[in-house]
Amino acid sequence: MPRVNRTAVLSLLVVSSSVFLLFQLYYYRKYVSKPGPHILSRTGHLTASDIQWQTVKTFLALAQRFRLPLFLADTAALTLLSQDALRQRDQLVREPHCSFLCSGRPITSFALHANLWKYDHGLLLAAEQKGFEMLDVRGEDPRLASLDTLSGDEIPLHLLFRLHGYIIQVVFLYERSGNYLWHGALRLKADMDRSFAPFKLLDFGRHAGAYDRPELVLTVLDGLDVRIPRNVSRFLHEQRHARFQECRYHDARNFLQLYPDDSSPNAVDFRRKVKSLLHLAARTLTDLNIPFWLSSGTCLGWFRQCSVISYSRDVDIGIFIVDFRSDIITAFRDAGLSLKHKFGKVEDSLELSFLSDDVKLDIFFFYEDGDVVWNGGTQAKSGRKFKYIFPRFSLCWAEFLELKVRVPCETLDYVTANYGTSWSVPVRSWDWKSSPSNVLGNGVWPPAEWAELIQVY
């Protein structure tokens, strides 16, 4: 057996120890000695949170370099941002941790205000140099969809960055004419890698979404400078109800080729008045915190032709009765509208109608009943009651007359219930008591109660 050279072994041990100490010193100077979470855990090994935090840190450095107008939009991270958590922030960051940005999911979501940033391909090159893999998801620009002569190039909708198995999602928010922010759905093309990310876990992209413009504040989370919505709770509420439904511009153009729009001065003036009235109604109900949606003929006009039905002569909106407020009449009167009639009562078939100039605003209150919802109608001269039955529906945002407004997400079912399968054919002669497909008789108001339940002004 050959003799072991003790000097050689000792030299090898000294060199190995020196390399290890230099390695520790490098990590200490680069990560541990800097503000924010320590990249090494107490055991000296990288944890999952350490890697995710480092991924977010690397991305935010890129964002700062390319001046991306980002803010944190991750629902899991924002949910953790209670006031108590923020108060404890200064104490928490002294410990090795990633409390907010590492929420247990392999994804961190950011939103980018697209109108404040010129798309820079240098960002993608720099990200690639940092080791990121990227997926650039693009789609049509809906702001050009209504213009026959402009198709436009596809616009970026979502950017996904992947590093060490963690995903950074950047959702692009675009300004729309209704003074709101919009993002598109995330739809992978045939040649895209469907295993790139856990797409079902993404906060944004399952549907298009619409948001009010949030006020942002700069804060420090887990040792990193991050912008967040000032009102976190409001943003999270918006995110849960942000689903957006685009007008069917292609079908609308086909419809208008068959049935050209009325361009007479009276029709143009009516559309102008409808827009003004709808904007006024939206402001009034928003101040009252009462959600509403386009109903009846106004909803049909949006769905069928992306416009106002010029011969309808009124504006129709729906409100769930659970959202009724007793000061709604006063609010509309203060806004300059006069009450035309009030039918029914809160418990049964309530209906309000206001007048602005010569255009009527009809507010139908909807009642939930098992698998259906319904609104009532009243014939003033006879006291007869009617009921209009709809399948249950959820609400989506849409754009109509340069206004962000709600519509039933299941619009086809809603319109078909009201107007039958021939809803796509204009009908100028309409009897509200018999023409709707979903109308049912609902008895008669007791004559002794007419003074209270049938009020016409």
Strand content: 25-35%
* Number of discrete helical segments: 13
The helix content, as a percent range, equals 25-40%
**Mean pLDDT level:** 88
**What is the CA-atom radius of gyration, in angstroms?**
30 Å
Q: What's the overall geometry?
A: elongated
Strand count, sense and barrel status of the largest sheet are: 9 strands, mixed
The total strand number stands at 20
Straight-line N-to-C gap: 115 Å
Sheet/helix structural class: alpha+beta
Low-confidence segments, ≥5 residues, pLDDT <50? Answer: 27-43, 90-96
Q: Would you kindly provide a written description of the structure presented here, covering whatever features stand out?
A:
Strands 10, 11, 12, 13, 14, 15, 16, 19 and 20 form a nine-stranded mixed sheet that branches. This protein has 457 residues and is α+β, with helices and mostly antiparallel strands. It has helices at 6-32, 48-65, 75-79, 83-87, 89-92, 121-129, 232-240, 249-258, 265-287, 296-305, 328-334, 411-419, 450-453; strands at residues 70-72, 107-113, 133-139, 155-163, 166-176, 180-183, 209-211, 216-221, 224-229, 293-294, 314-320, 338-345, 348-356, 359-369, 372-378, 384-391, 395-399, 404-408, 439-444, 454-456.
